[in-house]
Every structure is written in structure tokens, then in C-alpha cells.
């Protein structure tokens, strides 16, 4: 057993204290402050674009959970009119297969992560809940959106061992 010279342990402890005392603060005071999520986040909601959706139901077939529901009627030009578009977010595993499968890029991940509800029924998102101008779209599988989104907070660049 080797003995350290007296005071080495104390100096090592003080070094750790000063190292952490002087680094940039990374704690956020939630809920007053909120983190910016990754640009490509698969957060807890899907966003649907009614202007792009053709009602083809490819997303429904891609979903391993079977929790997307699309009902259509036939429009005047023999096109589909989407009557119902629903996602049961209580059963959704946010795998992204529906987003990837959509041939018209009408389905996106949203960026909201505070989606707790008091009952499971409130987790069923309908057409109105899934669309709207206030919905923030994630760049997951939609790289065109990437540059317009804010940078993630607490992003760690491991290459430089630096937290920004
Ligand atoms: S993210 Fe996955 S589980 Fe959720 S609706 Fe899409 S395909 Fe289904
Ligand atoms: S795959 Fe896309 S276009 Fe087809 S029904 Fe689903 S969201 Fe609409």
C-alpha cells in the first residue's frame, strides 16, 4: 500500500471544487426555464399537414402499434377528403415509421414534450390537435427544416470536451 504525501488529497478535492465552481451553469430552473430540444427530436406528438395529406393511409399501414386512424370520403374530383385523422398518443411509441413512410411529407414529429394528461382518453390527438400554425415541426426525417430550428441547449461537443 502506497501512502500519499500529506495534503495531496486535499489539493485534489479543492481542484475538483474550483473546476466545477467556474464552469458554465447547466442547470435550468424548470418550469420557468425550458430546454430547447434537439432539432431532430422525436418528441411526444405528431404534427399533420392537412394541405399536403392525400388520405392515402400509408402511415396507417406503417404503424406497428395500429394507433393511427384515417377515414376518408371521395371528393368531387375523385380525390380523398380526410374526414378523420387521429393518433392515440397514449399507445404511440414514437418510432417515426409513419413519418418516414408518408410519401407526401405530410406527417412530422412535433417538438412539444410536456404532454401529460389526467386520463388516457385525453391523449387521443385529432385533426385539430395535430395541425395548426402553432405546431413546431421537428427536423426528424425532414432535413429541410434543420437549419431553421434553434440549437439544442446543453449540446455537448464531445470532440472538444466542451459544454456550450
Ligand atoms: S410514431 Fe410509430 S407508433 Fe407512433 S403513430 Fe407513428 S408509426 Fe405508429
Ligand atoms: S401517409 Fe401521409 S399523405 Fe398518406 S394519409 Fe398518412 S399523412 Fe396523409
Could you characterize the architecture of this molecule?
Helix content is 17%, strand content 17%. The protein is an alpha+beta fold and 164 residues long. It has a domain of 103 residues: Alpha-Beta Plaits. The chain has a three-stranded antiparallel beta sheet. Strands 1-4 form a two-stranded antiparallel sheet. It is elongated. It starts with 7 loop residues before the first helix and ends with a strand. Bound molecules: iron/sulfur cluster (2 copies). The site of one iron/sulfur cluster (SF4) has 12 residues, from helix 2. The site of one iron/sulfur cluster has 13 residues, from helix 3.
Task: Please render the helix and strand layout as text.
Elements: H1 8-21, E1 46-48, H2 58-62, E2 68-74, E3 80-88, H3 97-101, E4 107-109, E5 124-125, H4 127-130, E6 156-157, E7 162-163
Antiparallel strand pairs: 1-4, 2-3, 3-5, 6-7
Bound molecules: iron/sulfur cluster (2 copies).
Residues 53-59, 70, 102, 104, 106-107 line the site of one iron/sulfur cluster.
The number of E-state strands comes to 7
Distance between the termini: 42 Å
Question: Which CATH C-level class of the domain at 46-148 is it?
Answer: Alpha Beta
Mean of all residue-level pLDDT scores: 90
> What is the strand arrangement across the widest sheet?
2-3-5
| CATH domain fold name of the domain at 46-148 | Alpha-Beta Plaits
Alpha carbon gyration radius? 23 Å
Task: Name the ligand types.
Answer: iron/sulfur cluster
Low-confidence stretches: none
Q: Give the ordered list of helices and strands.
A: HEHEEHEEHEE
The profile of the biggest β sheet is:
3 strands, antiparallel
Q: What's the helical proportion of residues?
A: 10-25%
Amino acid at each position: 500500500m502506497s501512502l500519499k504525501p500529506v495534503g495531496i488529497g486535499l489539493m485534489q478535492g479543492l481542484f475538483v471544487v474550483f473546476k466545477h465552481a467556474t464552469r458554465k451553469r447547466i442547470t435550468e430552473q424548470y418550469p420557468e426555464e425550458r430546454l430547447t430540444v434537439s432539432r431532430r427530436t422525436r418528441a411526444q406528438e405528431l404534427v399533420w399537414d392537412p394541405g399536403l395529406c392525400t388520405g392515402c393511409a400509408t402511415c396507417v399501414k406503417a404503424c406497428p402499434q395500429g394507433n393511427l386512424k384515417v377515414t376518408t370520403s371521395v371528393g368531387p374530383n375523385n380525390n380523398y377528403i380526410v374526414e378523420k385523422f387521429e393518433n392515440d398518443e397514449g399507445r404511440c411509441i414514437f418510432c417515426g415509421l409513419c413519418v418516414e413512410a408518408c410519401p407526401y411529407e405530410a406527417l412530422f414529429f412535433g417538438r412539444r414534450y410536456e404532454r401529460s394528461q389526467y386520463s388516457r382518453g385525453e391523449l387521443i390527438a385529432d385533426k385539430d390537435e395535430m395541425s395548426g400554425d402553432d405546431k413546431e415541426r421537428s427536423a426528424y426525417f425532414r432535413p429541410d427544416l434543420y437549419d431553421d430550428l434553434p440549437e439544442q441547449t446543453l449540446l455537448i461537443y464531445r470532440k472538444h470536451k466542451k459544454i456550450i
